[in-house]
Specification:
Layout (H helix, E strand, L loop, with lengths): L5 E4 L6 H14 L3 E4 L6 H15 L6 E4 L2 H7 L3 E4 L6 H8 L4 E6 L2 H7 L6 E5 L15 H11 L4 E4 L7 H5 L5 E4 L1 H4 L4 H12 L1
Parallel strand pairs: 1-2, 1-8, 2-3, 3-4, 4-5, 5-6, 6-7, 7-8
Helix pairs in contact: 1-2, 1-9, 2-3
């Protein structure tokens, strides 16, 4: 099974109880990986959220990934970490988490895509495919053609991020990308399970 296929990134504005329900339902609907994000810098709250989601994911086989923070990933024994370009260097993160945990890296330019080839990472998050309200400091909008060309160039699995929804998902899947990462299409859906099921259907 491809763990990157439907990659849920949590909405850090949702209270932890809501988040637990969203994640549980989304996984039932077909989400294959969950990244916990906490942008407000409160480490204790981050650990609490990560621990809560880890409990929800127990026994599902769905990996728990922590956004940005290697210390939080180690504290909760998560399945991996996803780094941004301004976070800890990938080589150092790999040393800390060991060889068996997943390590993802966001790439925002062709140069970063090229440089990532020599880094000890397992997959890349290609950002942003389309402009989106959750991404305010956008460097590049890859679009469908840019995504297709990145898929052709990279030897690593790619996860498409940014502005992805039911309307453009089939075009994105047609590029051969390994997976898509979504926040609001699932977190803000009336029924996260149905939303995930619909997204899986559109990708197949």
């Amino acid at each position: 099974m491809n763990p990157y296929r439907l990659y849920l990134v949590t909405d850090d504005r949702q209270p932890v109880d809501t988040l637990k329900t969203v994640v549980a339902e989304a996984v039932r609907g077909g989400v294959t990986m969950v990244q916990v994000r906490e942008k407000h810098g409160d480490v204790r709250a981050f650990i609490e959220r990560a621990q809560a989601i880890k409990t929800v994911l127990q026994g599902t086989g769905v990996p728990l990934i922590i956004n940005d923070r290697v210390d939080v990933a180690l504290a909760v024994d998560a399945d991996g970490v996803h780094l941004g370009q301004s976070d800890m260097p990938a080589a150092l993160a790999r040393q800390l988490i060991g060889p068996h945990k997943l390590l993802g890296l966001s790439v925002e330019t062709e140069q970063q895509l090229f440089e990532a080839e020599s880094l000890p990472v397992d997959y890349l998050g290609l950002s942003a495919i389309f402009a989106t309200p959750t991404k305010t400091n956008l460097i590049k909008e890859w679009g469908i053609d840019g995504l297709a060309s990145a898929v052709a160039q990279s030897s690593l699995p790619l996860v498409a991020i940014g502005g992805i929804n039911a309307a453009n998902l089939q075009d994105i899947a047609a590029t051969g990308v390994h997976g898509v990462a979504l926040v609001s299409a699932i977190c803000q859906a009336q029924c996260p399970r149905t939303a995930a099921q619909d997204l899986v259907r559109l990708m197949s």
